[in-house]
Task: structure prediction
Amino acid sequence: MIHRPRILRASASIRKMVQETILQPHHLMAPLFIVEGENIEEEISSLPGYYRRSLDKTLEEVSVLYELGIRSVLLFIKCPDHKKDNAGTEALFEDGLMQTSIRAIRKHLPEMLIMTDVALDPYSSYGHDGIVKDQEIVNDLTVDVLAKMAVSHAAAGAHFVAPSDMMDGRIAALRQSLENAGFHNTGIMSYSAKYASCFYGPFRDALDSAPGFGDKKTYQMNPANRIEAVKEVLLDVSEGADIVMVKPALSYLDIIREVKNTTHIPVSAYHVSGEYAMIKAAAQKGWLNEDQAILETTLSIKRAGADLIATYFTKDIVRILNNA
Ligand code: PBG
Result:
């Protein structure tokens, strides 16, 4: 026998020495759901162990994450129903909850990278990512609003704006608007290959943002398509994206690898709410070892080619890595 691959698996020390994929806290982005009010920390029923928080509680959480080595947060706002409309008006106010939160986090912990969700659905009375006219999600009008939203986030101090809407041409429009407004140092993380997925269900519960009519298939991608993801990513790179994202993660590991092999900029993946819920539910039933499932799935996303991972498991992952 010439080749004995088991030699490299013989002990924990050897396995560690030759381990190819390394997960570290600063590879993780923590999504945070912010609500109006004070002293609020409410568990999201379809995301057990995950919370909507008012800004004061969010600041505490940001400190906890930073202590653990997490260096970026991805902010989402829950907008009350009476402030929603078709144009996303509430999203643009200088003293809106997103803008106020960005300023507060920057002041509280300047080293934490703030990435902000740029999309209309949390603010839309239709629960869609764009302006609706005659049941259609109108592209160019929506892009104008998204560009204004991005500039208002940059003005408040966001390090990266993260458009999650899948409208055409929005990266170019955002970059141009940021430049025109003098925000040359604000980055763009684009949700480039975002699929029309059933795995967003718990997130829509968290923000009460489920579409009121139809679905998102005229803008989010068909799960059957791979080559189209490359097209979307290359467009976003040419339009000025700094980081591209594939979303969801687990059912799309092949897409993550494809994108990693095609681009020369950092690739992120979003391990989405439904993927979190699946692991939680199976663990609650005693059907899976939760920690092992968390580590294995997160490693697989990194191994597939994601440099950065947005996940609701950030704190668990750091705890598991520290105990390993
Ligand atoms: C919408 C948005 C969604 C998510 C992030 N931004 C849901 C959707 O497209 O309906 C989902 C994230 C998750 O499921 O964890 N702009």
The chain has a mean pLDDT of 97. Residues 117, 119, 121, 129, 164-165, 200, 203-204, 216, 272-273 surround PBG (CB under 6 Å). The first strand starts at residue 28 and ends at 35. The CA atoms of residues 54 and 66 lie 18 Å apart.
